[in-house]
């Protein structure tokens, strides 16, 4: 930094160009048109305004006087060239005063109020100053229009104490100095500036001292905003302490029990929402702020303090119509007899922490209650499922068919589902096989599962064994349950023991797998929508012949669905297991298939039904 005042942005220096302009235009001074250009250039250079503004000013001035603008310009050039050092400064002030109406500054009252509102939300040492001008337009002083609430100068004055005062009253050593000059230049050209580091001497009787400061100046409205930083060590410590108070939402206090003096930090005023100009709250008033239910805590803390203990207490107070949680840590300087002479205390506003803690406690209680409800629902669902859906431990023999069932419950206890199966002889002598899955989990899914399974068993014995008709009945039954009733998927098959024909239908469910001689395929699905979705769903039927030794596998989607795999990838190990079982010529293929199937989805229940057509010969009847 070459000097104490440096422009923060480059600006055109018209004074440096003036000599060159004089040399080029010296020969044509009598030309009135060029005189106007020359006059505008000189005015722009000496007042640091734009040439267009100088042009407008000269034309307006000529119009007001009823004169030719070129003639007026010639007089201005002659007048300016006839003065030396004093002339440019006086002319600068005169023209700046004349050009001020062109800049349309806002009303001072509104502007000052807005400026104060802005500074109220900004940390640091900031002031807004308005120039006080003499009759000739020159700046003779500055008036403090707004100040940051955290400003405390070296004399101990706060921002609210200097608003409305003149600079010469508050900081007389700044008058005419580098900061003063930077303000004036900032007002003239609208360019921000930085001054310093420079020494500042305070001559105030209350706190005479010297320190080093840096100042940043920016134009704002009709005035300037002035931001300054102290570079001395004490200021840095004070700044760090103030920042700590703001970040921690705390403040400190000191109570001298001998003299009765009380001192609060700015942070403590913020905690108690009190104007620093009003001073600390009296002790009896502080006691009345405590919430009545917490008075015993304060009393116990006072008793412990009298015994020489350090206080660390969290209690509630009512401030500004709201309840705050305050944490107080206090200790004392004691006399020879152990009596406190001076109390030091730090008080922190921990309302946010305590409010969050209370909310978390409530949420934890609700979660515990919810968990208890889930556990009760799970026990009920498991009981209902075990009653309605007993799982045989050994294969079931039906006419010319051997059936094995496996049920794999979800790992997560609360996810008891609605998977079900059916394997029984119908009223016409055929065998009805079915498997299904109710959407959802818990008691509701288990209850819906029971409804479907019992309905299918009753319909197959009393009404029909046709798979499409059975699904139609189940669909209407589920749909008529009303709004909120679960939907479900299912496969229903009708097996004829004499011919081995299998007719089957599906309602949004994975198709069965058919294994023959070590080769497994997925049967082509006929049309059919999920149960309970529409009132009059139509279901198609497909047919396949089951030869002796063939194996049919019905399963719910938990067998093949995985978060990290496609359905095709999930089905592959199931098919591989079926093929391997037949290749090894297992003596008990149905039981072996059920036992060797890969682990199902841990997040969902899975039900699997394997059926094998038995050969006619007794030797091949094992399965």
TrEMBL record:
Pfam family, one: ANTAR
Keyword Coiled coil found: yes
Protein name listed in UniProt: SpoIIE family protein phosphatase
Coiled coil: 353-380
Residue ranges occupied by any PPM-type phosphatase domain in the UniProt entry: 402-613
Keyword annotations: Coiled coil, Hydrolase
InterPro entries: ANTAR (IPR005561), Bact_Sigma-Reg (IPR052016), PAS-assoc_C (IPR000700), PAS-like_dom_sf (IPR035965), PPM-type-like_dom_sf (IPR036457), PPM-type_phosphatase-like_dom (IPR001932), WH-like_DNA-bd_sf (IPR036388)
């Amino acid at each position: 930094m070459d000097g104490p005042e440096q422009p923060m942005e480059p600006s055109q220096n018209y004074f440096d160009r003036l000599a060159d302009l004089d040399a080029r235009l010296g020969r044509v001074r009598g030309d009135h048109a060029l005189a106007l250009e020359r006059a505008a250039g000189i005015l722009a250079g000496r007042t640091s305004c734009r040439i267009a503004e100088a042009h407008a000013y000269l034309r307006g001035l000529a119009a007001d006087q009823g004169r030719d603008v070129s003639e007026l310009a010639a007089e201005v050039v002659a007048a300016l060239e006839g003065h030396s050092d004093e002339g440019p400064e006086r002319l600068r002030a005169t023209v700046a005063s004349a050009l001020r109406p062109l800049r349309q500054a806002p009303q001072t009252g509104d502007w000052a109020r807005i400026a104060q509102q802005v500074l109220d939300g900004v940390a640091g040492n900031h002031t807004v100053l308005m120039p006080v001008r003499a009759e000739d337009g020159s700046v003779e002083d500055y008036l403090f229009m707004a100040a940051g609430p955290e400003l405390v100068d070296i004399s101990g004055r706060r921002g609210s104490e200097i608003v409305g005062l003149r600079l010469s009253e508050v900081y007389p050593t700044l008058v005419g100095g580098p900061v003063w000059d930077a303000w004036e230049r900032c007002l003239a050209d609208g360019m921000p500036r930085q001054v310093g580091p420079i020494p500042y001497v305070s001559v105030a009787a209350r706190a005479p001292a010297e320190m080093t400061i840096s100042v940043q100046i920016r134009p704002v409205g009709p005035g300037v905003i002035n931001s300054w930083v102290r570079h001395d060590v004490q200021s840095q410590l004070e700044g760090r302490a103030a920042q700590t108070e703001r970040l921690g939402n705390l403040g400190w206090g000191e109570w001298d029990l001998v003299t009765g003096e009380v001192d609060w930090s700015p942070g403590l005023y913020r905690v108690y929402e009190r104007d620093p100009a009003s001073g600390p709250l009296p002790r009896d008033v502080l006691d009345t702020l405590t919430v009545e239910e917490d008075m015993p805590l304060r009393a116990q803390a006072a008793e412990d303090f009298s015994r020489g203990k350090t206080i660390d207490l969290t209690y509630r107070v009512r401030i500004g119509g709201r309840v705050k949680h305050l944490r107080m840590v206090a200790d004392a300087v004691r006399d020879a007899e152990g009596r406190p002479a001076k109390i030091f205390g730090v008080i922190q506003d921990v309302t946010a922490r305590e409010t969050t803690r209370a909310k978390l406690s409530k949420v934890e209680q609700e979660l515990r209650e919810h968990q208890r409800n889930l556990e009760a629902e799970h026990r009920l669902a498991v009981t209902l499922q075990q009653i309605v859906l007993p799982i045989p431990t050994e294969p079931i023999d039906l006419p010319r068919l051997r059936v094995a069932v496996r049920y794999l419950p979800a790992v997560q206890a609360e996810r008891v589902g609605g998977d079900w199966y059916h394997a029984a002889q119908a009223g016409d002598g055929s065998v009805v096989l079915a498997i299904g899955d109710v959407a959802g989990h818990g008691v509701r899914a288990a209850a819906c599962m029971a409804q479907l399974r019992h309905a299918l068993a009753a319909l197959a014995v009393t009404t029909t064994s046709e798979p499409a008709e059975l699904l139609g009945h189940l669909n209407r039954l589920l749909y008529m349950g009303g709004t909120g009733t679960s939907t479900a998927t299912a496969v229903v098959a009708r097996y004829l023991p004499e011919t081995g024909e299998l007719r089957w239908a599906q309602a949004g469910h994975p198709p069965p797998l058919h294994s023959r001689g070590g080769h497994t395929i997925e049967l082509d699905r006929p049309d059919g929508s999920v149960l309970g979705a529409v009132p009059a769903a139509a279901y198609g039927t497909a047919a396949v012949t089951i030869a002796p030794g063939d194996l049919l596998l019905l399963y719910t989607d938990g067998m093949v669905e995985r978060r990290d795999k496609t359905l095709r990838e999930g089905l592959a190990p199931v098919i591989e297991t079926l093929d391997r079982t037949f290749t090894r010529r297992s003596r008990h293929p149905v039981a072996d298939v059920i036992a060797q199937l890969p682990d199902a989805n841990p997040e969902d229940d899975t039900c699997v039904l394997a059926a094998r057509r038995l050969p006619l010969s007794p030797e091949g009847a094992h399965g």
